[in-house]
Amino acid sequence: MYFDSAATSFPKPKEVKKAISNFFEQELGSFQRTDTENSDFIYETRRKLSDFFNVESPSSIVFTSNSTESLNIIIQGFLKNGDHVITTATEHNSVIRPLVKVKHEKNIQITWVKCDKYGFVNPDDIISSIKDNTKLVIMNHGSNVTGQVQDVEQVGQRLQKYDGKIKFLVDISQTAGHIKIDNSKIQADFLAFTGHKALLGVPGIGGFYINPKVDLPPFKVGGTGVLSELLEQPKAVPLKYESGTLNSLGVLSLYHSLDYLNSLTTDKIASDLKKKTCYFLDRLSKMENLEIYSLENPLGIISFNIRGIVPSRISHFLSKDLDLQCRTGLLCAPFIHEFIHNNPFGCVRLSMSYETTWEEINVVCEYLKNINEQAESIQNIKFPEIYEMPSIKNMEEYV
Ligand SMILES: Cc1ncc(COP(=O)(O)O)c(C=O)c1O
After folding, report:
1. pTM for this structure?
2. Is beta strand 190-194 parallel, antiparallel or unpaired with respect to 206-210?
């Protein structure tokens, strides 16, 4: 059973599988490096993504290999010496590590904003942290640990009063494909997305939206396939950021997965996952030894612990007895655990998709009920060494 959709989606739509296997039968040549019609699907995929996120134009969509690359390009490229940035306790290491790197290299000031016990960040805390030198606000739209979705629309709208002085970067790695991303409401200057999660594409494709008015230097320069007479990097977006041969196979996967998602609709996916998480939580709440960290959510995430049992032990049982795949531990988000109260071991994360069946959910709930009943006998298993956990409370600025 597959309960690890928040890590990467499975299964992919049959349209995607078919397109990938046909890929090798076609003479598609070198994409975007010729003027043939073959590269049209690259443009078409940009167009589909710009519609999907409701942003101005297809050329504001840049392809990269994943969210991590997009976040690095934006964070390392945009922030300059002495800038102040505001971010949250729910961020993934794909934001935290580039931020810590620029903090040391460029003397960047960072304010870390806390979250509540389910991972919700209060927009007031973001806005009240703004200073004269604030240049960027970074928010994880949906927590990969608890499934909590943030009110990025409120933050984006409140940032408008700063006349474009403060840019807004939203990490939509977990939300894109699960809920409607309408950037006319969020008004983000950057949206970082990855293709292999709920967007249902293959690993190795991702990208970002960039507000055409924002000046961001490229991270890498080199072959773009066109304008070869220029010795410097072309200035036009998306070419400016897309040096080197594109992952056309990955783009093709998105071309087809977006059609699938559009016909299914994110409304239907979000409502399905809300129902599933609601049912799951209802069952878990009746088990006395369970600590639950998620509320009903459209991301399909259920995080919990069984008191006294280290999370990796539970995933070991689930894998051995049910052949179930899930994730445990800190889940690449080291700060949030202090606020949801499961430091230092993190939690068990079961993450579902539209394809997860009610029968599978019932099997897992029944199994957890049994483990819960035997918890006392399992609790004796020795806990590993406790390591020191990083805390935003020990960082320079904390709200
Ligand atoms: C919230 C969040 N941001 C960023 C990432 C990084 O995504 P990728 O590994 O595809 O770059 C993930 C992946 O787990 C995530 O959940």
Report:
1. 0.95
2. antiparallel
